[in-house]
């Protein structure tokens, strides 16, 4: 047996309907069956339908046989299971436990606890948190590496300028590098660590420890992330190897190039800073517009 379709009105609300039964407790007013109260062999229920249209009223009476849903339907199977559980509950009402039935009609039942997904949720959240931390660490490391490279590139023009001045004064490359490193170490506590000069200090320490000048410069070029330092290392090592007299001219050209590059980077940084300021400026403009427009609209409404 299926639920009946009893509506409170028909014909787009023109006809009002009211249903009454000679046996209550089996069917709701909207036609839904109360499965718990249905008997296995069924019952005959007389239904009286009262239809009203304006001042006209009509009564219709008809009988229906109310049966529990068939076992071929999901509703019928659930109804049998509910009755079996209710019977087991009634049977063990005075006991401290409920023994669930193993059969309901012709259906074999197997019970198990409902799975709690909280543990799985915690695992998924934990994996997501770890992935977020790893991604954050990678991002922080990438940003730190980018910042370090930018600081090295800011130091590059000064290093080339000092090398050019000292070599023009007649010093050898090693003595010039020694002078630069000693001057940097003397001012480091006040001015702070400067990554570009740290690379030059490391190169000088390798020379002091016995590594050749050319080998130390080539090592600097291979390990440096900046193309400017690789270019400087190659320039110095080639001139030391060949004994070229054009080293000063090459350093002066590199000095001019590096300062020009530094100026371009400063201009680009200024443009990026001005671009970042557009968002707060737009926000301030919106606030000003609201301050001006809202009072005007309020006065118009008045």
Task: Write a brief structural summary.
With 302 residues, the protein is of the alpha+beta class.
Structure description:
The protein is of the alpha+beta class and 302 residues long. Among the domains are: 9-68, no CATH class; 137-272. It contains eight helices and six strands, in the order ββββαββααααααα. The chain has a four-stranded antiparallel sheet with strand order 1-2-3-4, with no helix packed on it. It has a two-stranded antiparallel ribbon with strand order 5-6. Helix 4 (195-208) packs antiparallel against helix 5 (213-223), helix 5 (213-223) packs antiparallel against helix 6 and helix 6 (227-242) runs antiparallel to helix 7. The two termini are 65 Å apart. The model has no long low-confidence stretch (mean pLDDT 80).
Task: Outline the secondary-structure elements.
Blueprint: E1 9-10, E2 15-21, E3 43-53, E4 56-66, H1 74-91, E5 103-104, E6 107-108, H2 118-168, H3 173-191, H4 195-208, H5 213-223, H6 227-242, H7 247-276, H8 278-301
Antiparallel strand pairs: 1-2, 2-3, 3-4, 5-6
Keywords:
single chain, 302 residues, alpha+beta, 4-stranded antiparallel sheet, two-stranded antiparallel ribbon, 61% helix, elongated
User: Given the C-alpha coordinates, what overall shape results?
Assistant: elongated
The total strand number stands at 6
Distance separating the two termini:
65 Å
Question: What would you report as the Rg, rounded to the nearest angstrom?
Answer: 45 Å
| Main sheet properties | 4 strands, antiparallel
Instruction: Note the run of SSEs as H and E.
Output: EEEEHEEHHHHHHH
Class computed from helices, strands and strand pairing: alpha+beta
Portion in strands: 5-15%
Q: What are the segments in which pLDDT stays under 50 over at least 5 consecutive residues? A: none
Summed over residues and divided by their number, the pLDDT gives a mean of 80
Strand order in the largest sheet: 1-2-3-4
Q: What is the share of helical residues?
A: 55-70%
Helix count, DSSP H or I runs of 4 or more residues: 8
């Amino acid at each position: 047996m299926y639920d009946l379709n009893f509506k409170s009105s028909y014909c787009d609300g023109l006809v009002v309907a009211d249903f009454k039964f000679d046996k209550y407790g089996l069917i709701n007013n909207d036609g839904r069956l109360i499965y718990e109260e249905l008997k296995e062999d069924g019952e005959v229920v007389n239904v009286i339908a009262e239809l009203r249209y304006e001042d006209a009223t009509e009564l219709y009476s008809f009988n229906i046989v109310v049966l529990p849903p068939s076992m071929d339907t999901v509703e019928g199977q659930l109804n049998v299971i509910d009755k079996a559980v209710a019977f087991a509950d009634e049977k063990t009402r005075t006991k401290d436990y409920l023994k669930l039935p193993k059969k309901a009609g012709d259906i074999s039942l197997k019970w198990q606890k409902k799975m709690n997904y909280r543990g799985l949720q915690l695992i998924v959240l934990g994996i997501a948190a770890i992935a977020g931390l790893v991604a954050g660490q990678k991002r922080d490391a990438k940003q730190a590496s980018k910042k370090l490279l930018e600081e090295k590139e800011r130091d590059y023009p000064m290093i080339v300028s000092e090398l050019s001045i000292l070599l023009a004064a007649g010093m050898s490359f090693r003595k010039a590098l020694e002078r630069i490193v000693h001057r940097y170490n003397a001012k480091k506590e006040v001015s702070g660590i400067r990554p570009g000069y740290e690379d030059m200090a490391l190169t000088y320490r390798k020379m002091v420890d016995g590594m050749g000048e050319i080998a130390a410069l080539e090592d600097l070029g291979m390990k440096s992330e900046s193309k400017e330092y690789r270019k400087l290392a190659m320039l110095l090592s080639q001139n030391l190897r060949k004994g070229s007299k054009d080293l000063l001219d090459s350093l002066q050209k590199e000095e001019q190039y590096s300062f020009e590059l530094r100026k371009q980077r400063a201009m680009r940084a200024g443009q990026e800073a001005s671009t970042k300021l557009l968002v707060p400026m737009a926000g301030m403009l919106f606030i000003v517009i609201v301050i001006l427009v809202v009072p005007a609209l309020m006065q118009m409404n008045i």
